[in-house]
Design goal:
With 208 residues, the chain is an all-alpha fold. It has 11 helices and no strands. The longest helix is centred in the middle third of the chain and has 29 residues. The N and C termini lie far apart (62 Å).
C-alpha cells in the first residue's frame, strides 16, 4: 500500500506539472504551484524530486509516454493507404484542439523554448520526446512517398520535422491570440500542402 501511495503521489505531481507549466511557463512555475495543483505537500515533492529541474525532466518523459499511448490508439492508423494515415493524423490533430490552452498545447515545446540555452538536460529530454513522435510519423510519410511521390527529392524525415514545426508554431499563435482558431487555419493549410506534395495521388483523384 505504501508503494502504491508513493507512486500515486508522484503521478499526481507529474500530471500537475503538465498543466501548470503549459499554463504559466517553466520559469513562472514554482514548486508550490505544482504541489498546490497536485494537492500534495512540499515535503512529498522533494521526496520524489531533488529539484524543479529534475521534476521537469521526469515530466517531459511522462508527457512523452502519455502522448505515445494516446496517438498509438488514435483512429488515423486504421486506413491501409499510408497517405490516408498521414492526412488522418492532421485531421486528428485538428480534432483534439479543444478545451483550454494548457489542454492541447505541447509541454515539450513550451519547456524547450524557455530552457534550450540554460538547462541542457531539459532541452535534451524535450528533443528526445519530440523526435520520438516524429520518428513514428516518418514511417507513414516514407510509405506515402514511395506510393505517390517516388521521384521527390525531399526526405520523409524533413517533412516530419516540418509538420511538427507547423504544429508548434500554431500553438505559439494560439497562445498569442488566446484562441485555437489560428491553429485550425494553420493545420488546414498544412493539409492542403501535404496533398499537393503527392502528385500521383492527385492524378488518381482526378481519374476517379
Amino acid at each position: 500500500m505504501a508503494t502504491q501511495a508513493h507512486h500515486e503521489s508522484k503521478i499526481k505531481l507529474l500530471n500537475a506539472a503538465l498543466h501548470v507549466i503549459r499554463a504559466k511557463g517553466y520559469a513562472a512555475t514554482t514548486v508550490e504551484d505544482i504541489c498546490h495543483a497536485a494537492s500534495v505537500t512540499k515535503g512529498s515533492f522533494f521526496h520524489h524530486f531533488k529539484s524543479k529541474d529534475e521534476m521537469a525532466i521526469a515530466a517531459a518523459a511522462h508527457f512523452g509516454a502519455m502522448t505515445e499511448d494516446f496517438f498509438a490508439a488514435a483512429p488515423y492508423h486504421q486506413p491501409q493507404d499510408p497517405l490516408d494515415r498521414l492526412l488522418g493524423y492532421i485531421d486528428f490533430r485538428v480534432a483534439i484542439l479543444v478545451g483550454e490552452l494548457p489542454d492541447y498545447t505541447c509541454l515539450l515545446g513550451t519547456l524547450v523554448q524557455e530552457t534550450y540555452s540554460t538547462h541542457p538536460e531539459i532541452r535534451a529530454a524535450c528533443d528526445k520526446g519530440m523526435s520520438t513522435h516524429i520518428a513514428v510519423l516518418v514511417s507513414d510519410i516514407e510509405a506515402a512517398k514511395q506510393c505517390y511521390a517516388p521521384e521527390a527529392t525531399w526526405s520523409a524525415e524533413s517533412l516530419g520535422y516540418f509538420i511538427q514545426s507547423v504544429l508548434q508554431g500554431a500553438f505559439i499563435f494560439a497562445k498569442a491570440k488566446q484562441t485555437a482558431d489560428v491553429a485550425h487555419e494553420s493545420l488546414a493549410h498544412l493539409r492542403r500542402y501535404l496533398e499537393a506534395l503527392f502528385p500521383l495521388n492527385n492524378k488518381r483523384k482526378e481519374e476517379s
